[in-house]
Structures are given as structure tokens and as C-alpha cells.
Amino acid sequence: MIGFGSETKGSGHPRPWGVTMEPVVPLTFEQARETVLRMVGSARRDVEGIAFTEAAGRVLAEDIAADRDSPAVARSVRDGYAVRAIDLPGDLQVIGEVRAGERFAAEVGPRQAVEIMTGAPIPAGADAVVMVEHTERGNGRVRIDGSAEPRQFINPRGCEARAGEVVLHAGARLDYSGVAMLAAFGRERVRVYTRPSAAIIPTGDEIVETGQAPEEFQIRNSNAWSLAAQVARAGGLARVLPVARDTEEHTREVVEAGLAADLLLLSGGVSAGKYDVVERVLAALGAEFFFDRVLIQPGQPLVFGRVRGKFFFGLPGNPASTMVTFEIFARAALERLGGQQEVALPMPYARLTREFRHRAGITRFLPARWSADGAEVTPVEWRGSGDIPAMTRANAYLVAEAERAEYPRGEWIRVLAK
Ligand code: AMP
Ligand code: MG
Fold this sequence. Notes:
Elements lengths: L28 H12 L6 E5 L12 E2 L9 E2 L3 E4 L6 E9 L13 E5 L11 E4 L4 E3 L2 E4 L9 E2 L10 E3 L7 H9 L4 E5 L3 E6 L4 E2 L10 E2 L2 H11 L3 E4 L7 H11 L4 E5 L10 H7 L3 E4 L4 E2 L5 E5 L2 E6 L3 H19 L11 E4 L3 E2 L5 E8 L5 E4 L8 H6 L2 E5 L5 E2 L4 E6 L1
Parallel strand pairs: 5-6, 13-16, 13-17, 14-15, 17-21, 19-24, 22-25
Antiparallel strand pairs: 1-12, 2-11, 3-10, 4-6, 4-7, 5-9, 8-9, 18-20, 20-21, 22-28, 23-27, 24-25, 24-26, 26-28
Helix pairs in contact: 1-6, 3-6, 4-5
Adenosine monophosphate binds next to helix 3.
């Protein structure tokens, strides 16, 4: 059934298989995104153990706790002198030095100081560090003219994390700092969710493989490969299946092969044409449809549903539509299927370098150049959603809101990184 979310209402646009259903309004971008997140929910999956050196980009399947206080001793955060704040200003006796990787054996007494390096443990008796730049050294003594706050330039033991404290939660995707933390807390092996797999199914009688010499009326298969790259970037395993021909029999055969994966990504065959058989095939396999039209451009005839326990997207076939709809909808589903808790789609604001107008009512994701500092954005000229060269000139999408038709030059507009 077609509908918004789990409701089972009909669809407004003519069904190719001739079933009459009550009309339902197509979803806005926000409603469609919310539907994807709600339907996929938080999917549980298999777990594997890996070395921390392989963990970048993977999603944690366990909480990670600190194995000791961090730092394990109070440490200096500056090069300088460890002192008793109460002695300052003053002329102090230097009783030795302590470097990172050492412990100072004696105690700092009244009117005494220890030369200290960044990262070194604070000697007993000292309660502050004075930066070397604010000291004058000579004759085994150090003169400090300023005063010092107790605890200045000292990181107390456990101030970053306490032994046993959870520092990373299951469901977090590990970035480079996460890898650093595994290393810092001695986690040589870690449990992560297995990567989610996505079956990529290109469709269309006009599609030929890259190595083939196409006739003028044929098109090389590029969608399968942009999608494979996007799936890999989202942490998934892409399985590119053969191009499904525009017959129900062949499309069904390829879709059935795709059901081995966690997620199905079909490209093309979801418009209302006579040879757009994707929805018909999925319906015959018993699919539920959560939506099949979204008020976005590129990518309006976007289909999302579930068949035999697997979520699927029918992505519109034009290359830019396939790329955009993956980024704004399918990526979130894949990340959730990979056990990731937070799925973000940041769309910060930048200033338009020129005036921009569009027809309101549809959210548009148009190829754009984002300035190196992120402050400005300029639309890229393009010839519509088949224009792959224009997409390669873009490093972002300008997001024109459905409620707003005109953006003067210099106006703030949202931008989505490509
Ligand atoms: P469709 O929605 O099936 O009518 O596809 C729309 C258009 O997208 C087609 O006319 C092709 O130009 C293009 N297209 C579909 N599939 C692919 C593909 N795998 N690679 C590149 N372009 C495609
Ligand atoms: Mg087609």
C-alpha cells in the first residue's frame, strides 16, 4: 500500500498497474526524511571484533570505558616551573627538573621550584605552573615577578575521564579521535557492527556497461558507480547487480537477487511511463510503499518501502536525481542499518553571490560552488538532472526552500556539502 509512514493510504499519481487508490498528497522533503528515519528506526545487526587500527569509520557495538583516570596523574600543560602559588611573586630555589615520562622524587618546599616540561607530572608540594616566558633564571634560582592562581596550567588527575567512565557509546561511528581514544585506553580489539550491504540495481533497456561502445541512443551505466561510491563513503558494502531490463520478469529476477542485501537501491524505472516497471515488480513481491513521490527537485518520483523484510529505495534514474536522493534519504537509512545512532544532514547557511529564484512548492538541491571558507555559495550552471559534468563542477548543493521563491544576492541560503 502507498501512504505516509505506516498508514496505508492511496497514492495520487496514476499507478502503472492500474490499481485505483485514494489520492494522497506527495510528501515534503521534511516529511519524507522523517518517514525514512521513523521506518528504519534503530536497526540491530551482527557484531564482529576487529583491531582498533582498522576501526576508523566503523560503528561501535559496545560502550568504551576508560581503563584508568585520564590523565592518570596531574600534569603540566606548559613548559615552565612548578611552584607553590603562595610563594609568588618571589625568588625561588630550583631544586631540579621533571620531564614528560618521569616522576619527580622530592617534594617542593617553601620558596622552591622545579623546572617542568609540558606533560610532566606535577611534583608533590607544587600547586601551580608558571610559564617559562614569565620567569628569569640564574644561579640555580628563578625569579618570578607575577603572582599565580593555584591550579594554573595543571590538568588534575581524572579531569578528562575517570577510570570506568564510558567515553564512547555503542552506536557511535568512530572518527580519527575515536581511534585515538581506543589507542589511549589500551583497547586493541573492539566490537563493531558488521557493515550494512546495499544491492545496487540499475534499470533500463538503454543502459550499457562502461566498457561497451554505446549506440547514440544508449547510455553508459554511471548510476551504479556513483551509488557504489556513496554507499562506501557511508560505511556500507556495495554489491552492484546486473542492469535490470525493462521487463517485469527480468527486473523481478534481479530484485530477488538483491534481497540478499540489507538495503536495495534501484535506479530508474520509477516514473509513470509504460516501461517503468519497478513499482509493479515490487508490488507483486508484496512490498509496502511508504511514499512514492516527494516534493523535491531533482528526484520527485522517489519510492521508499519494504519488501520481504528489506527496505528499498526506487531512486529516479537521472544521474543527479540518483546522487541527490541517495544523499538526502538513502544514506540515513544505510547508516541506521549499520547501527549508527546519530544520522546527520547538516545544512548550514552561506551567502548567495548572486540572486536566485525558483518556483516555490518544491525543495531544490541544486549543484553549487561553496567558497573555500564556507561563507559564500554560487549556483553552478547546469542543463538539468542528466548533467553529470555540472555535478562534477559542484562541491555542494544549494538548498532552495519550498516556502520561498526569491533570494536576493547576499541573502542567506542553506547549503548541503556534496
Ligand atoms: P528512467 O527513470 O528509468 O526513465 O530514467 C531516466 C533517465 O535516467 C534515463 O533516460 C537515463 O538517461 C538516465 N539513467 C537511468 N539509469 C541510468 C544509469 N544507470 N546510469 C546513467 N543514467 C541513467
Ligand atoms: Mg528507465
